[in-house]
Description:
This protein has eleven helices and eleven strands. It is α/β, with parallel strands linked by helices. It folds into two domains: 1-66, Alpha-Beta Plaits, CATH 3.30.70; 68-279, Rossmann fold. The chain has a seven-stranded mixed β-sheet, with helices on both faces.
Amino acid sequence: MNLVIQSPAPLPEAHVKPLVAIARGRRATPVDQYALRIEGADAAQRGDIDVYCGTHELDYAFIEPGRRFADFGLVAMDMDSTLITIECIDEIADFCGLKAEVAAITEASMRGEIKDFNESLTRRVALLKGLDAAALEQVYEERLRLSPGAERMLAGARAAGLRTLLVSGGFTFFTEKLKARLGLDFTRANTLEIIDGKLTGNVVGEIVNADVKARTLRETCAQLGIEPARAIAMGDGSNDLKMMAEAGLSVAFRAKPVVREAASVAFNHVGLDGLLRLF
């Protein structure tokens, strides 16, 4: 296997020899100043590599030799805490003075402690009842930020011929704005009910839970005429696990432990553009 080591800062030369030795690899080749590819790495050394990389704040990934980014046809991404740095519902709740209460439910749901995502979302949205819908625009303009490397990753995906899907347990208000801003191909999210300029505390239509995320990935692949094995899925919370399991490559981005353990690759330190350095 190839072992790709990445650093959020230029990778010090001092790491090269120890990493090659730990991985029992044949040779090391720089990808760029932030990444190194070790050929012939032994996957049985994962435990030692994990300890070394964790100690030095590096990310690592085992990748089959010869695999190319252009071999994939779709990048599917979660939105909150993946493509963007915030949890939109928590920031909306801040305008009601309920951020701590809503954030606690969000965190428990992402860790997988609340098993029913529909119940979790319904409980949180109900707390927003009566809020002026203008708060959504304020969250977008004042608080929403793209995750590091997001635009570079998306540009690289487009250049390699991949299509993009943003599928979120969050809200269409934000996914549609991001679709237009970033040139995304497909989006799927929940619709907040708004009447007379106020949030009603309800979600309209089918809730985008883990099953719906996975189904959306499959349906998008079918629309593109590709197998799900040619999809890459990126997420951070337990609601992303089923979607990630459908994909040929799954990336846990600054994710909860349950997601890191299940994913093909975990980015704990580098940005989303770390995806481009894997191939």
